[in-house]
Amino acid sequence: MNEALRILIVDDHEDIREPLAAFLARYGLSVSTEADGGALRERLRREQFDLILLDVMLPGEDGLSLCRHVHEHHGIPVILLTAMSDPADRIAGLELGADDYVVKPFDPRELIARIRSIFRRARMAPRALSRPLGGSQCYRFADWQLDLSKRELRHAQGRVVELSAMEFRLLKTLLEHANTVLSRERLLNLMNKADAPVFDRSIDSQVSRLRKKLEDDARHPRLLRTAWGDGYLLSADVHLLAT
After folding, report:
1. Can you give the CATH number for the domain in which 30 is found?
2. Which stretches hold the DNA-binding feature (predicted)?
3. Do 145 and 222 belong together in one domain?
4. Which of 70, 76, 56 is nearest to 10 (CA)?
5. What is the pTM of this model?
6. What is the pLDDT of residues 32-62, one digit of tens each?
7. How many beta carbons lie within 10 A of that of residue 242, not counting itself?
8. In sequence order, which residues have a C-beta less than 8 Å from that of residue 132 and are 6 or more positions away?
9. If both were cysteines, with which of 11, 46, 67, 119 could 55 make a disulfide (CB 3.0 to 4.6 Å apart)?
10. Which of 62, 93, 122 is the last residue of a domain?
11. Which of 66, 93, 122 corresponds to the end of one domain?
């Protein structure tokens, strides 16, 4: 990995964050550490990072709230460090904008693999993972435009709709296979190509949330349609454009 990549570890347990920082530094990463949410917010006002490793159970403001803040205001990839074993809790973190999670206790080598995976997916130069490259691509469909660099969904009338990390991955997958019925299993397989954890029982709820954002009437969808017994399809002419 490139030594210019900057990692911020936020964990209130010194016996976790400091050994982890030393381990990551052995891979050529530039690593900083903080112990709580207030320090994280202050650090982000002064510095830029390429990735944040964020503990969920922090004193004061918890990691899930901080993850939402980072996703909405900084656009920096986040890996949650969590002791939560319930898939529903982990899904909640992904829906708030986390790019991945690692369950404690974990093998640091697994964390390295997940960090590499996120940097591969981002396809951005070091020190610029939170900023779009010059020029970007977007999908245009119906009255909508999805900017892939900004992860921004914009209506033709100008309003911007926020998407969670999982909603973005789901919509991108549907756009890549427009006018094709995708079973839940097929959707899972396609979304997992990005090395992102997705859970079968979450697909229906993600489709429902996305439908409410896309459709004028979510009860009678015309874009994100259900093929009863088979799965879902996005029914629209889709164009991939350079902007």
Report:
1. 3.40.50.2300
2. 136-236
3. yes
4. 56
5. 0.54
6. 999 999 999 999 999 989 899 999 999 999 9
7. 7
8. 149, 150
9. 11
10. 122
11. 122
